[in-house]
């Protein structure tokens, strides 16, 4: 099963992180990532750029055509600032790995199962469900060829 860990922080956590040398944060995150890679559970993960850099956009689909604006603008605790995707055997294992993340007070990880082909079994005849399976196989073959 794949799970996504969605990282969120309160303003308290953001301020507290400013008291920690950035190289220490990099080392703690690097060690956490390395432990998941060595265990064979980490499929991917990225941090997201700070919104103060003007790097974010919001696409609002309540209008036709969708409205694109700068953002997101919301309370700090509503925004997410990074994620990991892991492949584990159970929800409990996902919770265990999430609990090991080197995050401080005020930080939260939302753990969500990523849907899989079996979630769409009732639509197995759908053209795009079938294409999705082929695309995933092609990606696996490509990744296997690059190792």
Automatic annotation (TrEMBL):
Q: Where is the YCII-related domain?
A: 1-116
Using the record for this protein, list the coiled-coil segments as residue ranges, or answer none: none
Matches recorded under InterPro entries:
Dimeric_a/b-barrel, YCII
Similarity-based family: Belongs to the YciI family.
- The protein depicted here goes by the name YciI family protein
Q: Which organism is it from?
A: Arthrobacter zhaoxinii
């Amino acid at each position: 099963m794949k799970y996504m860990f969605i990282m969120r922080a309160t303003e308290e956590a953001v301020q507290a992180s400013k008291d920690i040398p950035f190289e220490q944060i990099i080392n703690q995150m690097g060690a956490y990532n390395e432990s998941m890679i060595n265990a064979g559970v980490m499929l991917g993960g990225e941090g997201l750029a700070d919104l103060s850099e003007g790097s974010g956009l919001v696409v609002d689909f309540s209008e036709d055509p969708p409205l694109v604006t700068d953002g997101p603008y919301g309370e700090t605790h509503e925004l997410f600032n990074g994620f990991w995707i892991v492949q584990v055997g159970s929800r409990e294992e996902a919770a265990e790995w999430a609990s090991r993340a080197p995050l401080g007070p005020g930080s939260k990880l939302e753990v969500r199962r990523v849907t899989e082909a079996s979630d769409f079994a009732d639509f197995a005849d759908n053209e795009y469900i079938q294409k999705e399976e082929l695309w995933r196989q092609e990606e696996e073959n490509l990744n296997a060829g690059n190792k």
